[in-house]
Fold this sequence. Notes:
By secondary structure, the protein is mainly alpha-helical.
Amino acid sequence: MDNYRPEFSDLSIENAINSVKTWIKMRLQQKGRGVFVSSHEILGILTEEFQELKEAVRSNVYDKIQVELLDIAVGCILGIE
């Protein structure tokens, strides 16, 4: 049996990055531009988003999964910043 796995196209990666950029702007408008004050705050936010991702995966609703993945990506990027 062949272990074929489709590959990401450059366009699909670019689209995903653009989605994250859009999501960052939206979340900054919603939540403000306050910087995380500690590594514990970053971990708390990402842990909460990960729990929400697990719930979305259990529901098997792709739109919910995508929202939680975007929230995790935003949390990671803002945590890095």
